């Protein structure tokens, strides 16, 4: 696969604090890679270095096989960035803000490009609205349109749905999904929303304390958790159920006198259900909660690697 | 440097100026009102001393050039910091050289408009014709004062990038230090003897001397103009060198990204 972005041994220290610690990864053409980690893990610092607004202490950043530092202008013309934390000029309208960036990227026929994108993102009616008068959802869409003006080959998204209402976040994700369908664009995506990441990303890189602690597809990462949760509601003696679970050496928690949550490997779940019912316990409801990326995220955050 | 990127930044400032009452007040209304007040003072003083009256008005005339040019350059960066848009600009292929070039070109246009407006007002209201000092003197003084304004602005921007908006007051406050030091309204000899050597270290001092010389003799004071220009080159080089160091430190320390909060 052709790598659009490759990073080797990237390091950044702020005094004694190690923000990014010798991380290496790559993003292939057309690939969506999630960059995840708890607050302060080093995600944003990594993104800032990948955009040349923060200078790394050491390491190598290459886009399209070219060294970023020595090909800055060319590379920045082929990539783009959108974040919930950066906004456009509040006093200027959508049209004015986008025209400025179209100029900076030397977009050919900028009027058509902007009008097409506004239509695609269903925001044509906000063309003359001042940026600071827009809703969060409208602003997010304008930010994404800004990031598409130069037909980038890779976009760096830094928590694009942060602080959005769930329905607007859902729409934003749909827009980002539509980007993927539209071509060979690559995305490097940071978010705290594991559902978003599971839905969008081909591969996930977990960072903690500046280091990459895991890297795989969302599905494979959830498999690493191993245990699922079996929630049983029953009509019968609580002590009988507890004795049986103890005998099976499973971790458990009674949510009330008639509901128990048992941690177990997925393959053992049928025999557990069967085993409980054999204790003359009437099972009234069964719920199996499979491990999610969030469980993996929490396990990493809690292990404090 | 790419012209289209410079024009992109100028376009942004054009839109901002259209929509911002603050910019209109700070760059056009306030300088005009100051000039009008000084115009009346000069009319009042003219009864007893016409030379002093004209020197005061001339000084305020040209002071607006420095003030507007410096303010304009420094404020464009601040407007982008306040809007959390500075990073967006610098993740495009825009270079800091292009950004500063756009800021300075825009500042020259604004200073020119203010100067032209002041010329008309002073002629119509106060019967003072700036052209009596000579077009060559006007141009030479204007260029030197704009260059000095750029040095100050670049110095302020260097601090702004390095230390963030906590020092933003310098963008509109620091310039006041140079008004008395440059002997804007009076000959340098009026300043205390201990201060005079510092005054002579500033290019603006020579530019104001040249303006007053033009008013008195209707000819250009080449010595002062050249001294001003020479010092301007030194100041510009120093401020640019300082800016490059501070800009790099800002990106190294992460302050550049933190500027937007």
List the main descriptive attributes of the protein structure presented here.
heterodimer, A: 305 residues, alpha/beta, Rossmann fold, Alpha-Beta Plaits, 2 domains, six-stranded mixed beta sheet, four-stranded antiparallel beta sheet, 11 helices, 14 strands, elongated, B: 261 residues, mainly alpha, 12 helices
Q: How would you portray this structure in words?
A:
The complex is a heterodimer of chains A (305) and B (261). With 305 residues, chain A is an alpha/beta fold. Chain A folds into two domains: 3-222, P-loop containing nucleotide triphosphate hydrolases (Rossmann fold); 226-291, ACT-like. Chain A, domain 2 (Alpha-Beta Plaits), CATH 3.30.70. Chain A contains eleven helices and 14 strands. Chain A has a six-stranded mixed beta sheet, sandwiched between helices. A four-stranded antiparallel beta sheet of chain A has the order 2-1-4-5, covered by helices on one side. In chain A, strands 12-13-11-14 form a four-stranded antiparallel beta sheet, with helices on one face. In chain A, α8 packs across α11. The mean pLDDT of chain A is 90. Chain B is mainly α. Chain B has helices spanning 3-19, 21-46, 50-82, 86-90, 96-126, 135-163, 170-173, 178-181, 196-199, 203-217, 222-253, 255-258. In chain B, α1 (3-19) crosses α5 (96-126) and α3 (50-82) packs parallel to α6 (135-163). The model of chain B has no long low-confidence stretch (mean pLDDT 93).
Summarize the structure.
The complex is a heterodimer of chains A (305) and B (261). With 305 residues, chain A is of the alpha/beta class.
The percent of residues in helical segments of chain B reads: over 70%
How many structural domains in the coordinates of chain A?
Answer: 2
What topology, given as strand order, has the largest sheet of chain A? Answer: 6-7-8-3-9-10
Order of helices and strands of chain B, N to C?
A: HHHHHHHHHHHH
- Kindly report the CATH topology of the largest domain in chain A: Rossmann fold
CATH structural architecture of the largest domain in chain A? 3-Layer(aba) Sandwich
Structural class of chain B: mainly alpha
Biggest beta sheet attributes of chain A:
6 strands, mixed
- Shape assignment of chain B: globular
Q: Helical content of chain A, roughly?
A: 25-40%
Q: What is the rounded Rg of chain A?
A: 24 Å
CATH homologous superfamily assignment of the largest domain in chain A: P-loop containing nucleotide triphosphate hydrolases
**Radius of gyration of chain B (Å):** 19 Å
Q: First CA to last CA of chain A: what distance? A: 31 Å
- Estimated share of beta-strand residues of chain B: under 5%
In total, the number of strands of chain B is: 0
What is the makeup of the main sheet of chain B? none
């Amino acid at each position: 696969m052709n790598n659009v972005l490759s990073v080797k041994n990237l390091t950044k220290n702020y005094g004694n604090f190690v923000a990014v610690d010798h991380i290496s990864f790559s993003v292939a053409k057309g690939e969506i890679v999630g960059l995840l980690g708890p607050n302060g893990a080093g995600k944003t610092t990594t993104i800032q270095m990948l955009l040349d607004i923060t200078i790394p202490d050491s390491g190598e950043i290459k886009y399209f096989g070219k060294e970023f530092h020595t090909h800055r202008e060319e590379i920045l013309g082929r990539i783009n960035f959108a974040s919930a934390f950066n906004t456009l000029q509040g006093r200027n309208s959508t049209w004015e803000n986008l025209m400025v960036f179209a100029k900076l990227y030397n977009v050919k026929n900028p009027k058509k490009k902007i009008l097409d994108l506004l239509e695609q993102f269903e925001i044509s009616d906000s063309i003359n609205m001042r940026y600071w008068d827009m809703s969060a959802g409208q602003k997010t869409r304008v930010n994404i349109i800004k990031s598409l003006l130069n037909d980038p080959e890779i976009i760096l998204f830094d928590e694009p749905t942060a602080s959005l209402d769930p329905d607007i976040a859902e729409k934003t994700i749909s827009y980002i999904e539509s980007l993927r369908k539209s071509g060979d664009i690559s995305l490097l995506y940071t978010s705290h929303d594991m559902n978003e990441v599971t839905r969008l990303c081909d591969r996930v890189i977990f960072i903690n304390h500046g280091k990459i602690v895991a890297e795989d597809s969302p599905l494979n990462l959830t498999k690493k958790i191993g245990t699922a949760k079996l929630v049983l509601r029953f009509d019968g003696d609580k002590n009988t159920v507890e004795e049986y679970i103890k005998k099976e050496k499973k971790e458990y928690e009674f949510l009330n006198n008639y509901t128990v949550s048992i941690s177990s490997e997925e393959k053992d779940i049928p025999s557990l259900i069967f085993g409980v019912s054999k204790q003359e316990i009437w099972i009234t409801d069964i719920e199996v909660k499979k491990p999610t990326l969030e469980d993996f995220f929490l396990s990493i955050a809690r292990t404090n690697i | 440097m790419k012209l289209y990127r410079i024009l992109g930044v100028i376009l942004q400032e054009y839109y901002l100026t259209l929509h911002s009452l603050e910019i209109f007040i700070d760059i056009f209304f306030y300088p005009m009102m100051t000039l009008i007040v000084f115009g009346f003072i000069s009319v009042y003083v003219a009864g007893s001393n016409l030379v002093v009256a004209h020197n005061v008005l001339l000084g305020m005339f040209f002071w607006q050039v420095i003030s507007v040019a410096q303010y304009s350059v420094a404020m464009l960066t601040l407007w982008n910091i306040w809007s959390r848009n500075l990073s967006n600009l610098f993740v495009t292929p825009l270079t800091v050289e292009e950004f500063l070039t756009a800021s300075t070109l825009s500042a020259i246009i604004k200073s020119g408009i203010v100067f032209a407006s002041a010329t008309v007002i002073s002629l119509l209201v106060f019967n003072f014709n700036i052209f009596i000092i000579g077009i060559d003197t006007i141009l030479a003084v204007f260029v030197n004062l704009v260059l000095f304004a750029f040095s100050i602005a670049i110095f302020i921007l260097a601090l702004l990038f390095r230390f963030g908006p906590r020092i933003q007051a310098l963008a509109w406050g620091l310039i006041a230090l140079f008004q008395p030091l440059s002997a804007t309204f009076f000959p340098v000899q009026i300043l205390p003897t201990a201060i005079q050597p510092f005054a002579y270290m500033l290019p603006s001092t020579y530019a104001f001397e040249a303006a007053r010389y033009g008013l008195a003799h209707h000819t250009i004071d080449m010595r002062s103009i050249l001294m001003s220009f020479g010092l301007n080159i030194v100041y510009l080089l120093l401020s640019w060198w300082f800016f490059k160091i501070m800009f790099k430190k800002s990106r190294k320390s992460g302050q550049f990204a933190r500027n937007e909060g």
